Amino acid sequence: MHVGGTIGYKGQPSFKLKHYPAIGRGRKNMKPYVICHMNASVDGRILGSRWRPAENRMAGLFERLHDELGGGSWLIGRVTGSEYARADSYPDRTDQTYPREPWFAQRFAPSEPKAGDAGQSHLKALPLQGGGLGGGDRVASPVRSGCQAPNSPPPRPSPIQGEEVSRPNAIALPGDAAAPGIAYGIVLDAHGKIAWGRSDIGGDPIVAVLTERVSDAHLAGLRRDGVSYIFAGEEVLDLGLALEILNRELGLERLILEGGGGSNGAFLRRGLIDEISLAICPAIDGAKGAPSIFDSSDQDAGTPAPIGSMILASTEFLEGGVVWLRYRLQNR
Ligand SMILES: NC(=O)c1ccc[n+]([C@@H]2O[C@H](COP(=O)([O-])OP(=O)(O)OC[C@H]3O[C@@H](n4cnc5c(N)ncnc54)[C@H](OP(=O)(O)O)[C@@H]3O)[C@@H](O)[C@H]2O)c1
Q: What is the pLDDT of residues 265-283, one digit of tens each?
């Protein structure tokens, strides 16, 4: 079905369904609307360094499409998150005991938009809990509407192939009350394995999702680095609870899930993905067991995802033979 008639790369038709609702806008759910955004080879593999032909990895595409999706807060797994870590470890002892409660180096409270407020920031900086970033308050990034400020942070390297690409953070979404001016980089780290040595990725403040079993010494390291954290489970992560907490504490109504396959698979199997944004690159990995868009642990391998339906929302032909697909998912 060709509805909408958008024209894609070099005059090739792109397909958009007519009644595709504004994604993730104006929703007041407890759970943020989750878009799983990935670049993959034709055989569904996600490790760009293994793809051939190598030039078809499409440098910068992942970030560009992230921005076209509207940007905002994003979430990655521990393995992908480790690729951004700048420290080897935290000290393994502390005299402090920290409550197993969310801790934010910085937080921005949504305020309800008033009539006629369009285009204005709805942010209000809250005081830091327990010190924060090196003792000094940070304010929302000055980067607005995709324009890079002169003192903007270094770009976030793409998880696809490690190239340095610019990610203008802080894209304002009308429906995402917490998003105007700020986007969070959220990382699953159940056991507190990542020593960050930084407080942000590409300007987006890091929020670690931990279990309560994480040591006080690790929490001390996170606080020292100015890395915020939440707890979502005692011994194992409850991903649904993590989303609820992110919604409640940070006002996130929309979240871009950006891999890797293990994390994507975990969200998928729990019925937490609302949309898939998949850019298929004209390249092939071809190896058995190579990382793929959705993976499972051995334990989960036999558990099918509770997907009731998948509706094609749009297709676009992009430069270099890339096809960008978006699907809406209904979970049972
Ligand atoms: N092509 C793309 O678009 C794209 C995008 C992103 C990443 N990547 C690539 O993907 C690769 C990594 O993929 P990956 O699947 O190995 O790793 P991943 O998804 O980044 O991280 C998996 C880890 O996250 C934690 N995790 C995930 N689900 C969890 C749950 N339900 N409960 C608790 N912890 C959970 C676990 O950490 P613990 O082991 O600590 O328990 C798990 O081992 C990287 O090479 C990266 O470059 C590609």
A: 999 999 999 999 999 999 9
Residue 184: give the domain boundaries.
9-109+128-136+157-331
One-letter amino acid at 311 equals I
Give long-range contacts, CB 8 A cutoff, 24+ apart: 99-104. Answer: 100/212, 100/231, 101/231, 102/228, 102/229, 102/230, 102/231, 102/245, 102/249, 103/129, 103/130, 103/219, 103/222, 103/223, 103/228, 103/229, 104/128, 104/129, 104/207, 104/228, 104/249, 104/250
Cα–ligand 1 centroid distance for 287 (angstroms): 19
Is residue 34 a contact partner of residue 267, using CB atoms and an 8 Å limit? yes
Confidence of residue 330 (pLDDT cuts 50, 70, 90): very high
84 CA distance to ligand 1 middle (Å): 13
Task: Kindly report the protein residue whose alpha carbon is nearest to atom 9 of ligand 1.
Answer: 260
Residue 151 in any domain: the answer is no
| Ligand 1 mean position, distance from CA 253 (Å) | 22
76 located within any domain: yes
Could you tell me which residue, 297 or 91, shows the higher pLDDT? 91
Q: Is 192 in the pocket of ligand 1 (CB under 6 A)?
A: no
Per residue in 219-249, pLDDT (tens digit) is 999 999 999 999 999 999 999 999 999 999 9
For the domain that residue 307 is a member of, what is the CATH number?
Answer: 3.40.430.10
